[in-house]
Amino acid sequence: MPVDWHEPYLLALAVTILLLNVVDAFLTLTLLTSGAREVNPFVAFILDAHPRLFALTKMGLTGCGVLILVAVARIRLFNIMRVGNLLHAVLAGYVTLIAYEWWLLHAAL
After folding, report:
1. Would you tell me how many other CB atoms lie within 10 Å of the CB of residue 65?
2. How far is the C-alpha of 38 from the C-alpha of 42, rounded, in Å?
3. Which phi and psi angles does 50 have, rounded to 5°?
4. Which of 9, 29, 38, 63 is the most exposed place for a label (fewest CB within 10 A)?
5. At residue 62, does pLDDT exceed 90?
6. By the 8 A CB rule, do 38 and 28 touch?
7. DSSP sequence for 66-87
8. Residue 2: which of 83, 90, 63 has the closest Cα?
């Protein structure tokens, strides 16, 4: 069964992604207070309609996504690669996003 046991590095990978998600939320709110605009329409709607639910929604969606990817990490996707490798792509995406937000924040100052 592919869901029974997972490599220990997946825990570190999942926790790192979740921590970067928190940093992303903080930087997003900081940029929005500096005059930036949210380009993700779903997140923009939540920020406009229910600003207090922003963090809960962001953490919940990312947490559920990471949980699902870890649960099926050993399954092969399209018979090409293991699903767990997608976690590496998510991590790279978050690192890139945070670097971009950091650059935007310093450019705004």
Report:
1. 15
2. 9
3. -140, 75
4. 9
5. yes
6. yes
7. HHHHHHTTTSEETTTEETHHHH
8. 83
- Tokens at residue 47, please? 């920020």
Token digits of residue 108: 């705004």
Residues sharing a CB contact under 8 Å with residue 33, sequence separation 6 or more, in sequence order: none
Q: How high is the mean pLDDT of the chain?
A: 89
Backbone angles phi, psi at 40, to 5 degrees: -80, 115
3-state helix, strand, coil in the chain (%, to 5): 75, 5, 25
Neighbours of 41 (CB within 10 A): 8
